[in-house]
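#random but structural
TW: two for the price of one
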Amino acid sequence: MKKRIAYSGIEGAFANIAAKKIFPDEEIISFLDFRSAYKATENGECDFCVLPIENSYAGEVGQVTDLMFRGSLFVNGVYTLDVVQNLLGVKGSSLQSVKKVISHPQALEQCAVFLNDHGYEAIDAVNTARAAKQVSEMNDISFAAIASDETARLYNLEILASDINEKRDNSTKFAILSRSDEKFFPENSHKVIIMFTVKNEAGALVKVLNKFGDFGFNMTEIRSRPLKGLAWTYYFYIEAEGDYEKQDWKQMISEMSYRCDKLKILGKF
């Protein structure tokens, strides 16, 4: 029986493309938003969900980070998808005929220089694939979408301009989440994701962070997010590299937990 893989968006969205690359032989299931895809996996309707956690240009996807902090799913791996944005229009349109461009806010931000240079008005959409579908259905040469070349083929659109994102190293990291804490990719990469809140006492955060170095872990990413419902209170997201199979891993977590109100090992992969 095929596994069911949840993602947010419609066919042609970058999340859909990532899900198909990670799970080429499984059933890919579309959901309207991040929360719906997450909850469908949490309640057993789906086996995995593939959600974006960070773009190299636009930064973190805060809504997904919040879901990971509050929810029960584990990260089984992280997949990086190179993102190439293109300007798509209906047949008969051109760079000169286009006046308005529809896409996801991050895609619009990634292509802001191109849009400004051409004097296009930017219009937000839920995601890039929905923007392409909308332009296709409108069949108006004054509208265009920003999306992938795969999306152009899906919705019978023409590529008016290729590779229009400002940064050429544009990529998005997608988390593979499930109810199990087992890693998905077979290679032994020794990466961990930990999320936590610290106790309200002097030096608590520094003491927690120092534990990574003390136990031989290299922090590759750290960021904070406001804790909903508690003004001026934050939780922290950390990615680190190190050997979590060593005996002193448990000692490290124990010493960190002493300074934390909540500590969650989100993934080891």
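TW: number two ↓
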Amino acid sequence: MQTIESYETLAPLLSRQLRKGVRTNAFSDPDEYRREIAARRLAVQEWDGGLLLLHRRTGFQRLNFYLYGPELPDLKLQEPTVLEIAHRPQDEAMQQAVALWRDRGFQVLFERVRMQRPRDLTPPVAMASDVPLARLEDQSVLETLMDGYYDKVLGCLPERDELAADIRAGAGLCAEGGNGQIIGMLHLALGRTSTEMRHFVVKNECRRQGIAQRLFDSYQAHTQGKRSLVWVLADNRPAVTMYEKNGFHTDGWTSTVLYYDVKGCAEHG
């Protein structure tokens, strides 16, 4: 694997993959790639049948691919590796990609379904006074909340520099209790035409008090009712029900999450 030193090195590698019939799970934008390159977290491997991208995280790595040939290259993984492949029922090529990686020793752990809420044309309610935007001084609390409720490997948790950048961009909301302490949070991705809910946490002891709904209402106000997306574990019925109550519906997209443990023991999930 080659560690990428600049986006100018990466860009032509990506351009060469954009051909008819390519299968990919790589959807990062240039700014995301530049942040990873600056932190020396991105490595690639090109071969005749495509391109692999390894995103180094704390204690593991995430894998993206471009495939236009029938085979995978020789690949020696030194860290536990997560691979997520999104597909629809009619996407036979992507389902074949799942089988290809399973043959290489990746284990399917679970599936997520995507839900979306169309753009809200009615003026959204104002943000709740007890749900302000996150500040940089809140970062350690948000990290503790996410670490406590999401799997460190499979939860798609941001690195410290990534979360700081998201907070600066207004991509975090905090729910405050009566004493001003943070009891819930929502981490999101802001796009031009849509937003995505990434991490949504309310402390266990503070649930069933309407806090999740206040977070969601403030999220809608903050994002001005843009089309909203969220990925949910397929068997997490309470979460699916909550999103359905707020106007979300499944849209036919499923993602298969695979895991490769270099020790031969996949215990996450």
